[in-house]
Amino acid sequence: GNSVTQMEGPVTLSEEAFLTINCTYTATGYPSLFWYVQYPGEGLQLLLKATKADDKGSNKGFEATYRKETTSFHLEKGSVQVSDSAVYFCALSSGGSNYKLTFGKGTLLTVNP
Amino acid sequence: EPEVTQTPSHQVTQMGQEVILRCVPISNHLYFYWYRQILGQKVEFLVSFYNNEISEKSEIFDDQFSVERPDGSNFTLKIRSTKLEDSAMYFCASSETKTGSDTQYFGPGTRLTVL
């Protein structure tokens, strides 16, 4: 079946540091890949997505590239801000008739000033 | 910007009681979902719903669970006889289409506490 493995947290960084959160997946077919973010007290918001191999999703300075050869979709940001403190979830949807999202466990990011 | 809303934000109930969690999906969306997240664990798919019927359900979604779209705007999840292990955050989501690449938009969640 489908699965997503995310880097264990929590991750604590200083403002302006470089961020990488690793995500690898196992899926049948050709999945679409997503990063969702959950700010304190709020729901899950889509951060970015990529729907085919070598696509790069980007939003708010975050980027992730769909790597089929390594089955990975690592999240990166060059310079984090305090406002980026949140829980980040990697997820996949394997398409076809299976529209459900399969999530990783989430990674808590705390950015200190 | 349109958003998915959920009520209540927190529900406390006694074991064995029935609860109904409510969601208002984005108005032009046709596909609806429930997920749950037990504290410290992954977000897990429960059920998807389209055209007034269940499209897919997980093994978690047993006979104690049901979903309904009672009118043109609400989408509800009912748990008939709650158990302690039903304590979790429940998220509703909706999407415009049913392709795997389409974005599912999530509500803020209902925290269910079963005592």
SS-based class of chain B: mainly beta
Overall mean pLDDT of chain A stands at 92
Strand tally of chain B: 11
Helical residue percent band of chain B: under 10%
What is the residue-averaged pLDDT of chain B? 92
**Number of helices in the DSSP assignment of chain A:** 0
C-alpha geometry of chain B:
globular
What is the helical fraction of chain A, as a range of percent? under 10%
β content of chain B, as a range? over 45%
Of all protein chain pairs, which has the greatest interface, and how many residues does each chain bring to it? A-B, 28 and 29 residues
Termini of chain A, distance in Å?
41 Å
Order of helices and strands of chain A: EEEEEEEEEEEE
Please render the helix and strand layout as text.
The complex is a heterodimer of chains A (113) and B (115).
Chain A (H helix, E strand, L loop, with lengths): L2 E4 L4 E4 L4 E3 L1 E4 L5 E7 L5 E7 L5 E4 L2 E4 L9 E3 L8 E8 L8 E2 L3 E6 L1
Parallel strand pairs in A: 2-12
Antiparallel strand pairs in A: 1-4, 3-9, 5-6, 5-10, 7-8, 8-9, 10-11, 10-12
Chain B lengths: L4 E3 L2 E4 L5 E6 L6 E7 L5 E8 L2 E5 L7 E4 L6 E5 L8 E8 L9 E2 L3 E5 L1
Parallel strand pairs in B: 2-11
Antiparallel strand pairs in B: 1-3, 3-8, 4-5, 4-9, 5-6, 7-8, 9-10, 9-11
Mind explaining what this structure looks like?
Chain A has 113 residues and is mainly beta. Chain A has strands spanning 3-6, 11-14, 19-21, 23-26, 32-38, 44-50, 56-59, 62-65, 75-77, 86-93, 102-103, 107-112. Chain A is 0% helix and 50% strand. In chain B, strands 2, 4, 5, 6, 9, 10 and 11 form a 7-stranded mixed beta sheet that branches. Chain B is mainly β. The mean pLDDT of chain B is 92. In chain B, 0% of the residues lie in helices and 50% in strands. The termini of chain B are far apart.
